[in-house]
Write a structure and sequence with these properties.
The chain is α/β, with parallel strands linked by helices. 26% of the residues lie in helices and 26% in strands. It has two domains: 2-159 and 300-350, Quinone Oxidoreductase, Chain A, domain 1 (Alpha-Beta Complex), CATH 3.90.180; 164-296, Rossmann fold (3-Layer(aba) Sandwich), CATH 3.40.50. The chain has helices at residues 40-45, 106-109, 151-157, 160-170, 186-197, 209-217, 231-238, 254-262, 283-287, 302-314, 332-339, and strands at 2-8, 11-16, 26-35, 72-79, 93-96, 99-100, 121-122, 134-138, 142-144, 178-182, 201-206, 222-225, 244-249, 264-272, 293-296, 323-327, 346-350.
Length: 351
Amino acid sequence: MQGVVFLGDKKLALQHFDDPTPGPGEVVLEIKASGMCGSDLKFYRAATDGSGGAGSLGLGGDGEPVIAGHEPCGIVAAVGAGVTERQARVGDRVMDHHYAGCGVCNDCRTGWSQLCPDGFTVYGATGHGAHAKYMKVPVRTLVTLPDELSFATGAAISCGTGTAFGALRRIGLTGTDTIAIFGQGPVGLSAVQLATAMGARVIALDVGPERLALAKSYGADVCIDAAADDPVAAIKDLTHGAGVEKALDCSGASAGRLAAVKATRTWGTVGFVGEGGDVTLNVSQDMIRKQLTIVASWTFSTVGQAECARFVADRKIDVDSLFTHHWSLDQAEEAYQLFDQQTTGKGVILF
């Protein structure tokens, strides 16, 4: 089979890999949709080390190239020894929780393999991912895809949309809150959709007009161009000088993180979900004397992924519309060249 490999320096290649065979406790998925995530750009853009690969990024433990793509969704194509029918059957529609840890520690047993103290595999980064026809994973990483949802929606929930859902849960968003969402990339746009469905008043902020227009179409009550207006002042004007009850930074930018904190009212809650640069806060003024709560949220558990899928299905949220571009595997180079501009919604590779 052919699989996408990130070479660094904004280059990728389609390379040949053997079709995988499941071992004990494993399954092989036939991928139907593989989403493109903003964090893929870290590997796509990475400076090469002179050997033709992006340093240790995108390489497995044996130093061999790794297939990209960490938003997998498809059907079970084969099961290995010891996999029971209750765990998986050929033909099951599934998403994949794209991490695998030791499988026996408390974090792994509660579905948080990415917190495994013994280390973990990230499919699409340190283990073969979903930018290929087939993908082999432990059966414990599977999450059922509701029949109401498309494979593309399942791919989005497998990282970007699931990450937004987990973050909104972490900050305790309710329908009485006004929330400011900083950064309208795939996670931020998902957060707009989900927060709107939760009944909150949504303020969306970004520096790109295309993404602000998408946020408006997904239900944002107010959109603020953070490049043209002072975001903190604009939010204070919209909230009678008090600030928002909840803020979520999906940008990972220092300025976005700082503005999220400063735009949140006394007793409010700020969530950091976007990864990126540092931020410097005046702890007394910005936090202690505002009784502010700041929480961090890193993706989601297997349980949280299933809950997100059910929430999306029950409320008929049009997650498919996040995918502004659909690609075939042989268009991967063109797909990532466009995605690298960070002016559109998500892209998805369909099989």
